[in-house]
């Protein structure tokens, strides 16, 4: 098969479309002929040499894909050759074929085409596990989403609104904020010109956000705690603003607040399977009903993955960037 390989860490040019060994479906796995994959920040970190795949995972980047099942390994039930699926991956999405643990498969939801379905597994699993399973966002609460126009952000807005929460977002510029508003965001904060702590307090009569979904890490840590409501929950899923910061624990204690930090890629198979099962139960009906939909900015041929990475790093996009085989 062909796949994107990274011979030496570096810039986008390090992504090379070349021959690669065909994967084989092992016990508990299926083989998927990839129709499309999606570009995520984790792929950029892997390309740069900062985020290696977990042991046993494919060396190729790509944390989600869509396609058709072409082979089924021992011990797999409930799936058949020819089924159209999308999948959460530990790696390997930037390729023509990938072996996937059966517990990480999802059917392509009703109303979504096969290619567009590649925009769903990683972002939906990330948002559902962090905002709902861990942080426990409830109807009537306020969610603050940093990076509201990103793939994660566009999905978080829609899911939070679908369960009856109020949504605040940060994004850079009027155009991105307008897109967030179209998706249902109630409170629009331009991080380039406004202080999100002041804005979220003003919009909530001083209470603050009940849940914050954060991609920035160290840079926003102190301000995120300041922006939390009493009994608030801060869910950190990215480190774009650095990895080390000081925190006044008295401020956290005063708010009886909680901070969680998670990644999805290296979790045990059973944890990923539980998240995927919850997504299928709770989110797939919302997609089928048209209440939630994937937001795709642009699609590239997979051999042009380098250009897709350049677009992602420019932060000029809204929603997901897809790669098609």
Structure description:
α5 runs parallel beside α6 (221-227). 29% of the residues lie in helices and 27% in strands. It has helices spanning 41-48, 121-134, 151-162, 174-183, 196-203, 221-227, 249-254, 269-282, 284-288, 305-314, and strands at 2-6, 15-19, 29-38, 64-72, 84-88, 97-101, 105-107, 142-146, 166-171, 187-190, 209-214, 228-236, 258-261, 296-301, 320-324. Strands 3, 4, 5, 6, 7, 14 and 15 form a seven-stranded mixed beta sheet that branches. It has a six-stranded parallel beta sheet with strand order 10-9-8-11-12-13, with helices on both faces. By secondary structure, it is α/β, with parallel strands linked by helices. It is globular, with a radius of gyration of 19 Å.
Poorly predicted runs? none
Largest sheet: 7 strands, mixed
Overall strand count:
15
State the helicity in percent bands. Answer: 25-40%
- The share of residues in extended strands comes to 25-35%
Outline: globular
Assign the structural class, choosing from mainly alpha, mainly beta, alpha/beta, alpha+beta, or little secondary structure: alpha/beta
Gyration radius, in Å: 19 Å
DSSP helical segment count = 10
Order of helices and strands: EEEHEEEEHEHEHEHEHEHEHHEHE
Mean pLDDT: 97
Distance between the termini: 11 Å
